[in-house]
Amino acid sequence: MTQNIAVIAANGKSGQLIVREAVDRGLDVTAVVRGENKTVAQHAIIKDLFDLTAADLAGFDVVVDAFGAWTPETFPQHSTSLKHLADVLSSADARLIVVGGAGSLYVNPEHTVQLSQTDGFPEAFLPLATAMGDSLAELRERSDVRWTYVSPAADFQADGPRTGKYVLAGEEFTANEAGESAISYADYAIAIVDEATAAPENAHINERISVRW
Known about the structure:
Elements: E1 4-8, H1 13-24, E2 28-33, E3 43-46, E4 62-65, H2 77-88, E5 95-99, H3 126-140, E6 146-151, E7 155-157, E8 167-169, E9 182-184, H4 185-196, E10 207-212
Parallel strand pairs: 1-2, 1-4, 2-3, 4-5, 5-6, 6-10, 7-9
Antiparallel strand pairs: 8-10
């Protein structure tokens, strides 16, 4: 049973909600932040992600990576940050759960076409989706880390409601009966903590999963 969880980039919008969800469920939560801890976590590590060591993350059952890079010059950090965390957690017992993107979800059963490669995908989001997709592809090559990559729905709503419900899916893009693919950050946080606390037989180790309403 998961007891100790670290949330990296905990001051971000998704990070803060994941911390709150975990604390509300009685978990012992450590926020990993570069500056002042703005979360409700019981503990904090004040350190840049790229400076984290194996000793910093020792003793955690789960490490949640909520890091994001949102400008073209920092997009490569999706790969470099994930590689650093994977190296730090190499051969450790701790699970690494990654807050991912939707653009790399597949739209065909053969898994040859991703959402970001389809007509109508917003051009403005393509560089970010490509960078996040590349980081997932690199993570798939790691067998020395117990990782899980969690893609949100296409419409990832920062201020959406907390309904307490979501649909768990896999590698392929899915939508509801109305053709909508959406999830709030709050309900996504529920899914992250559900995965973090899942029994071993139900955990999605070395898999990508996705969530939507």
